[in-house]
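Action item from last week, closing it out:
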Amino acid sequence: MDFSIVIPVYGNEANIPSLVARLTELLPDLPTATEVVFVVDGSPDRSYDVLAQTLPHAAFASQLLRHSRNFGSFAAIRTGLAAARGDAIGVMAADLQEPAELMVEFQRALSTGAVDVAVGRRVAREDPALTSLTSRAFWSFYRRLIIKDLPPGGVDVFGCTRAVAKELAKMTEAHSSLVAQLYWVGFRRAEIPYHRVERTEGTSGWTLRKRIKYLLDSVFSFTNLPLDLLLITGLVGSLVVIIVAAVVLGFYLAGDVHEPGYVPLMLTVLFSTFLTMTSIGIVGAYIWRIFENTKQRPSSIVMSREKW
């Protein structure tokens, strides 16, 4: 295969016909040896059944893989990257909010040999105002804390060479970020601008809770920010305590404190309690992630695989 397109599928039953039709329209602009790899990630609807009925009659070669349960979109993408046979691979969502034409642009960029990773850079979007605002705020925060090279709108779609896909497939740590790993491995990158359209079928599963979890996973996996904040808090707090202690001592020597030791004692107790609880929480988060990785469980389980 010259090119593979990997598509994670979850709750996309309604728009699968449109997705297959759109991919078929792209075939004249893609290499003859192109395949599409669908990974159904424990979808609660009939996405798998619809694909199993549709793909045998599709105009393109395809693979259909099904997870034993829902492991998450990143796990589904990893499964697709491992199964893909193309020299170059594109990854897109099944909801068609990112234009499928990006797969053509990615394939052309990767085929030049001058680029190893191609990412979509969102320059405009047709989402509702609140969704757009929260997304911009999230990715702005993400860029400041974790990956400064990330496009302003984040990365929802990308393409890479077989060599990059192999490196990503080898990174099996739990509770991590595939996007952050994509930038961590390096290689030569290019950004391709696109316009994100409004979703026409179904609802997005990218909830606030998932965004917060994704952000925390990225922070703990790719930065030492929590430990730095803990150290700074300790230093600043210690300085404040020293200053307050000096002030209290001054009042004590001047005879203005009638219950000596009460104020500095309370400040010390309160600050020590705050610092101890914060430290336990941060260190506990790291220990939990270390424990999860020592289990060495697979990031996903494929229960069935079909090819056409």
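Closing note: The chain has a mean pLDDT of 78.
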